[in-house]
TrEMBL record:
<feature type="binding site">
    <location>
        <position position="15"/>
    </location>
    <ligand>
        <name>a divalent metal cation</name>
    </ligand>
</feature>
<dbReference type="InterPro" id="IPR013658">
    <property type="entry name" value="SGL"/>
</dbReference>
<keyword id="KW-0479">Metal-binding</keyword>
<protein>
    <submittedName>
        <fullName>Regucalcin</fullName>
    </submittedName>
</protein>
<comment type="similarity">
    <text>Belongs to the SMP-30/CGR1 family.</text>
</comment>
<feature type="binding site">
    <location>
        <position position="111"/>
    </location>
    <ligand>
        <name>substrate</name>
    </ligand>
</feature>
<feature type="binding site">
    <location>
        <position position="166"/>
    </location>
    <ligand>
        <name>a divalent metal cation</name>
    </ligand>
</feature>
<dbReference type="GO" id="GO:0004341">
    <property type="term" value="F:gluconolactonase activity"/>
</dbReference>
<keyword id="KW-0862">Zinc</keyword>
<dbReference type="InterPro" id="IPR005511">
    <property type="entry name" value="SMP-30"/>
</dbReference>
<dbReference type="InterPro" id="IPR011042">
    <property type="entry name" value="6-blade_b-propeller_TolB-like"/>
</dbReference>
<feature type="active site" description="Proton donor/acceptor">
    <location>
        <position position="217"/>
    </location>
</feature>
<dbReference type="GO" id="GO:0005509">
    <property type="term" value="F:calcium ion binding"/>
</dbReference>
<dbReference type="GO" id="GO:0019853">
    <property type="term" value="P:L-ascorbic acid biosynthetic process"/>
</dbReference>
<feature type="binding site">
    <location>
        <position position="217"/>
    </location>
    <ligand>
        <name>a divalent metal cation</name>
    </ligand>
</feature>
<dbReference type="Pfam" id="PF08450">
    <property type="entry name" value="SGL"/>
</dbReference>
<feature type="domain" description="SMP-30/Gluconolactonase/LRE-like region">
    <location>
        <begin position="13"/>
        <end position="276"/>
    </location>
</feature>
Length: 310
């Protein structure tokens, strides 16, 4: 059994883990605190900051920009922005707005995002009701969309009627895009690496059909093209066959709200798992969530793609 250990404590709602294979650090977001975080597993050091101009605005991911040191793509509700952060305790600064999405739906928020093998940014949205008392009341059904933002900043809507846009992954040949709508399933699309277009949507994995409680959240892929998905409200990480959708392995995480995951470490063989605390009580000394490391899985991931933004 692969050991699951706590790497970082005191997280309210971890999201968007991204392993920078050049810097050998993990970036992740603390969604409910609107903070950006960096974890160095070699030293054990954790660095936290916020965006200077928008200290209380949710941001869900942070992706390094290729050939731009200390520059990242991040989000501010429905805006995609370029920020500068030197990885220290100084505040991150928004340099410019790259693109805007869902401007006709002011209640919407951008959720997960990743760069594809060519550096194009893929991200999606969900409809949010802040007065909701639970997940079902907080999320507005089928109000979100999936987008591709090209390197020149052009916005392309690829799919719509999404409830909670979430995890993304590409197979090793760049011919398949895997994508999570958390209130639906893991979808599989044919992918055109030259154009960035998707087609032939198929439902690959529906949790309830496999007796799984909870919903699919963040997603990553290993070098054997098997998927690894976080199961929110399920205390699980699942390894899934990317071709058949069958469950290969289950890993229990000591937290119900498993949010996302990414391969990292020197050999890209450590699975970093973010979790959340649905109580969201800021008065608690420990927020009841952590960043976990899972070692000894016998698989490796791919280096995460960086964004290419002109």
């Amino acid at each position: 059994m692969a050991p699951v250990t706590e790497a970082v404590l005191t997280i309210s709602f971890g999201e968007g883990p991204h392993w920078d294979d050049d810097e050998k650090v993990l970036y992740y977001m603390n969604f409910m605190q609107s903070s950006i975080n960096k974890y160095n597993p070699e030293t054990g050091q954790k660095t936290t900051t916020e965006i200077e101009q928008f200290p209380d605005t949710y941001t869900s991911f942070l992706i390094p920009i290729e050939d731009k040191k200390h520059r990242f793509v991040a989000t501010l509700r429905r805006d995609i922005v370029e920020i500068e952060w030197k990885g220290d305790n100084e505040k991150a600064v928004v340099i410019r707005t790259i693109a805007k999405v869902d401007q006709d739906k002011p209640e919407n928020i951008i959720n997960d995002g990743k760069a594809d093998p060519r550096g194009r940014l893929f991200t999606g949205t969900f409809g949010y009701n802040p007065s909701g008392k639970n997940l079902n009341e907080m999320i507005l059904p089928e109000r979100g969309s999936l987008y591709r933002i090209d390197t020149n900043g052009q916005v392309n809507k690829l799919d719509e009627n999404i409830t909670i846009s979430n995890g993304l992954a590409w197979d090793k040949d760049g011919k398949t895009l895997y994508y999570v709508d958390s209130m639906d399933c893991i979808r599989r699309y044919d992918y055109d690496i030259e154009t960035g277009n998707i087609s032939n949507c198929q439902k690959l994995f529906i949790p309830k059909d496999h007796g799984i409680n909870g919903i699919c959240d963040g997603l990553t892929i290993d070098t054997e093209d098997n998927l690894w998905v976080a199961v929110y409200q399920g205390s699980l990480v699942l390894k899934i066959d990317g071709k058949t959708g069958e469950i290969i392995q289950k890993i229990t995480i000591p937290n119900s709200e498993v949010t996302s995951l990414a391969f990292g470490g020197e050999n890209l063989d450590i699975l970093y798992v973010t979790t959340g605390n649905g109580r969201w009580k800021k008065t608690e000394t420990e927020w009841g969530a952590a960043l976990y490391e899972v070692k000894g899985l016998g698989v490796r991931g791919y280096p995460a793609f960086k964004a290419k933004i002109n």
